[in-house]
Amino acid sequence: MVDLLGSSPFRPALTLVVACCRWPDDEARRAAVSAAAAQLEAWGDVRALAAAHRVEGLVAQALEVAHVTLTERMKQWRVESADRIRTAAVLQVRDTLRISAALDQVGIAYRILKGTPLAAAAFGTVGLKHSWDIDLLVDPRQAVAAAEVLAGLGYGPVKPPRPLGSAEFARWSAVAKDAEFEAAGCSPVELHWRLHDVPLQMARLDVHSDVRRIDLLGAATVPTFTDSANLAYLAVHGAAAGWSRLKWIADFSALLAAQGNSATSIAEARCHRTGFALDQALLLRHQLFATGLPEGWRDCPRVRRLTHDALTVICARSPGRPIERDTAALRAIRRSRRMLMSGPIYAVALAVRRLRGIEDRQTITLPRGLHWLYWLLRPLTFAGRAVRRGRSSTDE
Questions:
Q1: What is the CATH number of domain 89-226?
Q2: Sign, Cα dihedral of 251, 10, 313, 15
């Protein structure tokens, strides 16, 4: 365990939660869980941190297999959490298969990202990983058709807040990477036409890349990326968010552990233009889970600084306090984004992305012919948000 975790007010609980996120479930993991539990006094912190990092399933399972002595309340939490995660996973499998079948029927190419396919590939079961929604990647040219398929399944748009026609969608997709949909009694869906909003990275990975089909509970298979492409995607996704939830590094670590030849998988993942994110993920994995650094890992001061920032953000994830209200964590996340790739082209691309201002297009409605005004309004709205953030942190 890294010394940086000592800076967290939840250090004993965080140490235990991190130990529970190790994978595979071997004797080393169980010993780490037992040792961390022996130092613990406040089980309430464990419950709160597991929820904040969205790793309740892993924590519940680790406490059971390590035979940790629990309070009655903690025993009840363990059982209820495990049941809740398993039930949610089965329902998400149902919705994933339903959406997959509907897209196949109309001939739309797609990939299911993360979620239950990743859980099956990384952990060998869908019943441990927390998955809030279904991430669906399609070709930008088929996004409107995919949204219509979702509408036929009872899904309505949440972001943007109303259905868009082809022309409106073209303007929306120029600045946004996804749209969100919800349906009563079903898992939410994020419909992606780009993988992420960090420019230049993952440029060669899309819905037409090589596919791996994952069996879900023996019912049917769904398409996702190959394992090496998934490793690249998970590294960039986690890095873009500052690795602020342990679930992301747990997913990356488990998928890498499932590879027969990790060096080959890492080399293949590099082909997808990960910048420094892949090496950051490997070092972060080692520092959190004591896995060792695999062949193919590349060391440099930038990677170590990125990893230090990621650990800072992980420690800042506090129950009941959004990470968006932690000034130090936000500063680390923004600095990390600037460091994920080097060179002036990347710096310019980041600046342009911020100027596009997706927040403005969601909150300010302009007539179709005046959308060019968003570019002029952006400096004012950006400055206004900065002032409000400053006032909010001062009030606290």
A1: 3.30.460.40
A2: negative
